[in-house]
Write a structure and sequence with these properties.
alpha/beta; 6-stranded parallel sheet; two-stranded antiparallel sheet
Amino acid sequence: MAAPTKVLMLHGHSQNASIFSKRLGALRKSMGKSIEMVFVDGPMVLLPVDLNGASSLAALGASEANMTSSDPSTTPRAWWKTNPEKTIAHGLEDSILLLKDILQRDRYDGVFGFSQGAAMAALLAALLERPHSYPPFLVDGEAPHPPFKFCVAVSGFKAPGSLSAEAFGTSYSTPTLHVLGKNDVIVIEERSKGLLDLSQNKRLEEHDGGHFVPSKANWREFFRNYLVDPLGVIPSPEPRTVFQPAPDD
């Protein structure tokens, strides 16, 4: 029996591994034994000041999070903290070193991220292609893990800062499924375009909702088929919205 497809799962800003896993409960159960999803925590613990003037926890897809509870399953976390202009990623280096350690310990076929986790997923995919762009990521002069076979970025965007710019260069080539919500007011289409433009081998799918991972039956089937065979000819979950590259692309 073939080994299951192993997917590294990266939560969104203000979520954590437990919250993200529970929110994807229906999707996880639909994967069967052929796909193993491994959820990990971002290293940054968020405090009330970190959300001052920002969107509510509910809007970020983290209504379960509680900043005053001692229960680690409700602690809001992030992969970095940013400034109001969203031009700086404080703590991004710590997240990269954490993920480096995770990648050293096991092998993953691909990565799946939501929101800030999607930005982190794409950056990690790019770093595995160009590991020398950030020397602390290296292990004995080499990448800690082979390049991913795929990346799934739901409500994704390009991580800010020079480290991200160096890792991506002009483009990255890991096959990437970009999933955008037509009514997403947290990560708007214009912000996602910055990541789409860097994605050399991209597939874009849209859903009619907002800032969340779509999990209706058609999407669950689509994700399951994609994760097993990311290069296969897999029908769109919403056929009218499938992305067709322009002839000049």
